Amino acid sequence: MKARVLTAVALGPLVVFAIARGGWLFNGLVLVMLSVSTIEWVQLTVKDSRWVSGSLALLLVWLMVVDRVMPQAEMLAPGLALLLIATMGWAVIRFREEPDHAMVGFAFTLAGGLYLGWLGAHFVVLRALPGGGWWTGLTIPAVWLADTFAYLVGVMWGRTRLMPSVSPHKSVEGYLAGIVGGGLGTMGLAILWRALGAEGAFKPLHGLAIGLLAGTIGPLGDLGISALKRHVGVKDSGRLLPGHGGLLDRLDALLVAVPVGYYYVIFVALRGELGH
User: Fold this and answer.
1) Domain segments of the chain: what residues?
2) Contact, 171 vs 154, CB < 8 A?
3) 250 to each of 14, 75, 106, 142, 267, how far by Cα in Å?
4) Pairing of the two strands 167-171 and 161-163
5) Which phi and psi (to 5°) does residue 209 adopt?
6) Paired strand residues for 161
7) Could you point out which of 69, 116, 214, 241 has its C-alpha 20 to 30 Å from the C-alpha of 222?
8) Can you give the pTM of this predicted structure?
9) What's the pLDDT tens digit per position in 124-152?
């Protein structure tokens, strides 16, 4: 726990500063974090299949992030087509050497690139929204708040295992506490951000909704990566962050919660402003 807290204290200010500044700093941080997570994904999946292409997976991730940064370039469709074809060609070549592993490697390569790239690119578009700094500074902590409440209640009162075959320490009590605590905590954070200058559609009720969504859907990302780790027989995705494991271990819940938060913001909170 001491290592977890020290790591969070050390990295927290960097994340906050990047969110506040936005632009190339935030987008660059997102790209670096997703790239490291992709490398960890490859290191995990290569244990199951000897042929997983880190280069092609990284190119998929970079394509999707850069497309969100520069949508006017319209590179997603041709780039995705070329990378899909290249990945199939790579798998066919590998098939001659390892017929038992090549197509599994093909699937893991595409799964990692698409999962991390498509979902992770939502960090960029969330920050680019009107008032995006405030919305990003609400959605990301919503996941952390839900996770904290779930952990504390689970440790103290958790009795009913949520999904023991995937994550034996998660409890139903903790999961429900994450939803409620995340919702109320994020509403409180929205009130604070409002007092510090957030305007327009940024309201405490939206903070409550985003917190409830993060607490509900965030654990799916955590359980999904946990299932992958169980599948290949490892505890953590890496050793980059003392007390936390790998970077993918920290991004797993955010990868599903941030897209859900983004679509809530554009379809509900900013509906009038964006013309939906």
Assistant:
1) 24-128, 130-276
2) yes
3) 15, 29, 26, 14, 27
4) antiparallel
5) -65, -45
6) 171
7) 69
8) 0.93
9) 999 999 999 999 999 999 999 999 999 99
